Structures are given as structure tokens and as C-alpha cells.
Amino acid sequence: MNQDILQIFTKAINQFSVSRLIYSLIAILLAAAAILSVRYAFKRRKNHLDSSDDIERLRKVHGLKTIYRIIKIGIIFVCILAVLQINGINITSIVMLIGILLAVVAVGVKDMLQDFFSGVIISVDEYFKVGDAVEFDGRDGIVIAFNLRTTKIELLDDRSILAVSNRNLNKIRKLTHLVDIDLPLSYDLDRREAFSVLEGICDNIRAIEGVESCELKGTQSFNESAIIYKLRFFCEPNNRPDIRREVNKTIQDGLAEAGIKIPYNQLDIHTK
Fold first, then answer.
1. What's the pLDDT tens digit per position in 51-106?
2. Which residues contact residue 263 at a Cβ distance below 8 angstroms, ignoring those fewer than 6 apart?
């Protein structure tokens, strides 16, 4: 392989001419002009971003920078191929060689490439943005920054900063205002009594500061040891952990006042 590369460049030196040098310089200048034009266009776009929200503006700037870098790399790559072609070098062999090298390198830096492409998806598809509330590995947090390699999340429970590799994008779930609670109650409890108690609990949940609304969705499913009822409330995702704990306390108090116990999982065995 080394001999093939040496032969290619030896042939290029032998075929050197002033006209090819001029054409090569023209190709380089055109590429430089294209990069400067794209850079100028993106700077103008960044300066004209219309958003009163600083976090929203930061998100858009992140996206613009990502797109600019991708276009810049593409222009440089095309320019290199054009210069090689002008100087009589078979770019088909070069492209094949680059493909082989990239395949070899990709095996060693697979995680880095996954981080990069996931970072592009986050920026272009707006998977989430700075300031969004997310859940990662069962813990709630706020996205405070992200780039093409990592996403930084400030956890809400202890305010620590967690750096997550972008390849774990499928493990990051964007939170919404909606929170569902599945509440198991005994089969022995009358349905009308259950609905009456749960409606009263919903009224108490609505009174909690930060809760936007609450509603009883009804019977969710029939499990082995209990009937599952679904309660749904809405709140700001940033305040979700604290409000969720207060909602759980309200449910416990409401059930205790009504003399209702949450049943344990149990298995009844009938013998003859």
C-alpha cells in the first residue's frame, strides 16, 4: 500500500506544470471563498436571531455552529479531491484508500463517532434544548449545556452536574408537564367509594402550590392483587421531584383519612 501511494505522488511530481498549479490555486481560493461566504452567512444569521429567551437563543447558536462545521469539513474535503484530480492523481484510488482508513479508524473510535452523530441529531432535530427538564437513569435534571460529544445535566435532587455521552441519547427522556400515578386499591373496596375518595384526593392535589391541574382518569387495569386506578396531574418539569413527593404525601393522607389501605401483593392458594 505504501508503494502504491509513493507511485501516485511520484507520478504527480513528474506531471507537474504551471497550468495545473494555477488551477489548483484557483480551486483552493474558491474553497476558501466558499468557507468565508458560509461563515459570513452564519454570522449574520446568528446576529439576527430573534428570541427574547436567552436559553432559546443559545440553543439556536449551538445548532448553527454544528451545521457550519459540517459544511466547512465538506468544502475542504471536496477541495482536496479537486486539487488531486487537477494534478492527475486518480482520486478513485484515494477515495477507496480513505474509505479503508476510515473503516479502520472507525473501529477504534466508534464511541467518539456515535457521540458526534448523536450530537448532530440533538442540534438539528432539536431532540431537546438547554433548559429542558429530562430524565436519565431514573433521575430528573435540567440540560445546562451540550456539544457534539456530551450533554451536561444538572440533577434536581442534589444539584450535581452529570456529563452524559451523546451515544446514550436513547436513555435521555424529555419530561413534560404530565405526570401519571398508578394507584393500587383492594378488590374489596366498592368502586363508587373508591372514585369518591380519589376525587377528593384530586381536589387536595390541585391545592398544592405548583400543580396546574389534577384529574382522576379512572380504572387503569386489573392486577392479581389490586385494581389499578390512574391519577394524572400537571406541573412544571423543573419542580417535578418536590411536587411529586408532596402529591404522594397527599395521597397517603387522603387514603388514611378514608380508612383505605394499599394492598400488598399476595397469592391465594386453594387446597382440597
1. 545 555 666 666 677 777 778 888 888 888 888 777 777 777 667 777 777 676 65
2. 184, 185, 186, 225, 226
Query: What value does the mean pLDDT take over residues 186-192?
Result: 90
Helices 110-125 and 91-108: angle between axes, nearest 10 degrees: 100
Distance, in Å, from the CA atom of 191 to the CA atom of 37, rounded to the nearest integer, reads 70
CB-based burial label for 12 (10 Å; 0-12, 13-18, 19+): middle
Whole-number Å distance between alpha carbons of 100 and 96: 6
User: How far, in Å, CA of 242 to CA of 202, rounded?
Assistant: 17
Judge if pTM exceeds 0.70.
no
Instruction: Please give the pLDDT value at position 63.
Output: 65
Distance CA 131, CA 129 (A): 6
Contact 197, 230 (CB under 8 A): no
Domains of the chain in start order, with CATH, are 2-123 (1.10.287), 127-174 (2.30.30.60), 178-257 (3.30.70.100)
